[in-house]
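Need residues for this backbone.
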């Protein structure tokens, strides 16, 4: 188990992720009023089943071997949903999805506790998807540039935090071997 994260603790974090994802669905009609049926179809048709399958698999003995893969897929799907909604919605309130993306980046880099290279991979995918899809949205250029900088910094800081957590867990492991 990575970073001393027990299976029950991982289930707890999955539950928190599930609640956050479903909590975001409550505000979809407000923030993306023109495309909220698409938002709900993606949330309830893609994200919810992935998270439920991941939660059910966490009770299986082989789950620690596939945990990083499922965490990476679920975070990428969640971020992809937000980027998609930012791209297709013409509502001025869609700007708040940027804040949701920040929450997802911090959650994915710090709370899922996947190894650094897994975290680096999904962070790069999310950042590239955001970078190439932010143009042409209803967000004004100055605000879009601000959020692009903010999300880039959040990705870098999240990756640094993830690296530090992994580094510290390796040090703790070596200390227990030596003592």
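Answer:
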């Amino acid at each position: 188990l990575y970073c001393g994260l027990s299976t029950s603790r991982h289930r707890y974090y999955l539950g928190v992720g599930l609640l956050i994802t479903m909590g975001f669905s409550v505000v979809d009609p407000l923030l993306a009023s023109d495309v909220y049926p698409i938002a709900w179809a993606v949330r309830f048709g893609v994200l919810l089943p992935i998270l439920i399958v991941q939660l059910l698999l966490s009770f299986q003995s082989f789950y620690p071997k596939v945990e990083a893969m499922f965490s990476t897929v679920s975070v990428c799907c969640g971020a992809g949903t937000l980027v998609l909604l930012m791209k297709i919605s013409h509502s001025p309130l869609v700007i708040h999805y940027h804040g949701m993306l920040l929450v997802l980046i911090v959650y994915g880099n710090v709370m899922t506790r996947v190894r650094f290279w897994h975290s680096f991979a999904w962070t790069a995918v999310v950042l590239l998807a955001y970078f190439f899809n932010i143009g042409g949205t209803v967000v004004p250029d100055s605000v879009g540039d601000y959020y692009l900088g903010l999300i880039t910094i959040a990705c870098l800081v999240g990756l640094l935090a993830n690296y530090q957590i992994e580094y510290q867990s390796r040090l703790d492991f070596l200390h227990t071997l030596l003592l």
